[in-house]
Specification:
single chain; NT_2-5OAS_ClassI-CCAase; 7-stranded mixed beta sheet; 3 domains; Beta Polymerase, domain 2; alpha+beta; Nucleotidyltransferase; 5-stranded antiparallel beta sheet; Immunoglobulin-like
């Protein structure tokens, strides 16, 4: 499909709005290099050890985004690779040596003492820095990993970048052993940049010419943003909003980044990359004897989807998110009206963010389009509920459908209630009757969307489409008023694959 001019320009503006300030990268770089200097001083336990320190994760890949809370506080993951032998140093010894030096560093600069975790140490910087740093101790492990892969006839791609890391839960944590947990963040980053090398090099050269730089190296890597990186930022924001009520159930960033990089076809626009990635990213999930496998490109023994087998809900969550993202962005890309595009993306990108993107004068959106600022009303929040599945059926109005509600409690006769938000008692029984003039045959779907703390805690937010059995009688949907909060129900009449009528939201407040 070809996106409209309005949608293409808007999605580019959306990506730019998600970018973090350049000074965040510069501050992060300065901070971890300061620790390197500290570890290399003559009094340090590592004074005679070669140290290779580097950033990993979203900062390294250029895909970091602001938290949805609006508070600009970031996680910075840094690997400290010490040129030490596992024949003379245990995981515990390396971990504790790094902790000892970090405690001295924190005390020297008036910082909070570092926190210790299973694999890393965390330094919390002052609010002005707006990040905390996770520091992972490691040693080189390329030679050992090469032998292991050769014995198993596995690819040797990026193997020489492999490292061994510390982990308190590992069986050999306190013992001298060659067997440590392995990782390869350097190799993964190398693979990721290879996936977008043509687009990256072209963008960097263009920036060099535009800024009259003498050397391409004068353009820092973090300033070069390809459509792949921008698309991943948008997808991560979409995921964060979609799972804002269930952050533990969201697909991991490494899964999204890996599948997106595999799917990227060097598209020159953010919209083109985004649509292409969404259409094909699940093709790179391999079935290995019934096990879903997303191979780590820098370590073929690692499966990024390993949790899906033990927790099938995570697999379901990924495919549900992917289906929602496809619908959202394809629908937005087809629109020519800026406000329609905003309304399509607001539920799972955040209305404040999309309106900010549309209002940014530097992005040069369609000058004739004026952005309608939606009031932050209780009803608008219901409309923008992130877990409300988008409508995928094309709309071809044929008639109308209306919904009426009735409530019964403790076996008494039903009483009619209206779509006016008057609170209903929790524990009552509800029935909804749909009346339509659409000629049969057709299919009926109901969409129930719960909100509020009670429903979220019970994992009953719902939001999908539930098909009803259509008989010759009245179209009735029965529900229980189980959770306090504001909820909605909507009826859809689908005929020949098209949405022939929809009722609009019927609001149900339960106290």
């Amino acid at each position: 499909m070809s996106p409209t001019l309005a949608s293409d320009r808007f999605i580019s503006a959306l990506a730019a709005t998600l970018d973090i300030p350049a000074e965040r990268y510069e501050s992060a770089d300065k901070s971890y290099r300061s620790i390197c200097t500290w570890l290399e001083r003559s009094e340090s336990r590592f004074s005679n050890v070669d140290i290779d320190a580097y950033i990993q994760g979203s900062f390294r890949l250029g895909t970091v985004i602001p938290p949805i809370s609006g508070e600009e506080h970031y996680d910075l993951d840094v690997v400290f690779e010490f040129d030490l032998s596992k024949a003379t140093k245990t995981q515990q010894g390396l971990y504790e040596d790094l902790g000892y030096e970090l405690k001295l560093y924190a005390a020297r600069y008036g910082m909070q003492a570092p926190s210790d975790w299973d694999r890393c140490w965390t330094l919390n910087y002052a609010d002005t820095a707006q990040f905390h740093m996770d520091l992972l101790p490691s040693v080189p492990d390329g030679q050992r990993q090469r032998l292991i892969r050769e014995q198993r006839a596995m690819t040797l791609d990026f193997v020489d970048r492999s490292i061994s890391i510390t982990d308190k839960n590992h069986g050999n944590y306190a013992h001298l052993s060659e067997d440590w947990p392995s990782s390869n963040p350097h190799g993964y980053a190398d693979w990721f940049y290879e996936c977008m090398k043509p687009a990256f090099d072209q963008k960097r050269r263009a920036m060099m010419l535009a800024e009259a730089k003498a050397d391409i190296a004068d353009i820092p890597v973090f300033r070069v943003k390809t459509p792949l990186q921008s698309a991943i930022q948008i997808l991560k924001r979409h995921r964060d909003m979609r799972f804002s009520d269930d952050p533990d159930g969201r697909p991991t960033s490494v899964v999204i980044s890996t599948l997106a990089a595999h799917s990227y076809g060097q598209e020159s626009s953010v919209t083109g990359a985004l649509i292409s990635i969404l259409q094909s990213m699940d093709r790179y999930i391999v079935d290995r004897e019934g096990v879903s496998w997303i191979e780590n490109p820098s370590n073929p023994r690692e499966n990024f989807a390993d949790s899906w087998e033990q927790e099938p809900a995570r697999k379901d969550a990924f495919y549900d998110w992917l289906d929602t993202a496809r619908t959202d962005f394809v629908r937005a890309a087809e629109q020519g009206d800026l406000n329609t595009i905003i309304d399509a993306l607001a539920p799972r990108m955040g209305r404040e963010l999309v309106e900010k993107a549309a209002s940014n004068p530097g992005q040069k959106l369609l000058s004739e389009a004026s952005v309608i600022k939606r009031a932050k009303s209780a009803f608008q929040k219901l409309v923008d509920a992130p877990h409300r599945k988008p409508v995928a059926w094309p709309t071809v109005p044929v008639g109308y459908v209306q919904v009426e509600g009735a409530m019964a409690r403790n076996g008494f006769r039903e009483t009619v209630f209206h779509n006016d938000g008057v609170p209903l008692p929790r524990g009552s029984s509800l029935s909804f009757v749909a009346n339509t003039d659409v000629p049969r045959p057709f299919k009926i779907y109901w969409q129930i969307v719960n909100t509020g703390e009670a429903a979220a805690k019970a994992k009953k937010l719902r939001g999908g489409f539930e098909q009803a059995t259509v008989t010759t009688g009245t179209l009735i949907r029965r529900e229980d008023a189980s959770y306090a909060g504001s909820h909605t129900i909507e009826c859809f009449v689908v005929k020949d694959g098209y949405c022939a009528a929809r009722s609009g939201l019927f609001v149900v407040n339960i106290q």
